[in-house]
Design brief:
mainly beta, 1 helix, 14% helix
């Protein structure tokens, strides 16, 4: 099972219109960057030749999580 690491930085300005970036690593390789903003989530794959993001709205993310995700008990993921 790969070892994961997530790094993030928060800009010094109102978050409402600024992205928060999470760098997601698996086995010391950059899997991608997750950008969270007021209107959507952007995923930029680490190995993407063009570095063009995949965007998903919050509504579509909610739908995706409910369909593809699995529920955990409180305290399980900590």
């Amino acid at each position: 099972m790969p070892q994961h690491r997530v790094d993030f930085s928060i800009p010094r300005r109102p978050v409402g219109k600024s992205d928060i970036e999470f760098l997601v690593w698996g086995d010391e390789e950059l899997l991608g960057t997750l950008k969270i903003s007021y209107g959507a989530l952007d995923w930029i794959p680490g190995r993407s030749p063009r570095n063009r993001p995949f965007r998903i709205s919050w509504e579509k993310f909610d739908e995706f999580a409910r369909e593809k995700g699995s529920r955990i008990r409180v305290g399980e993921g900590e």
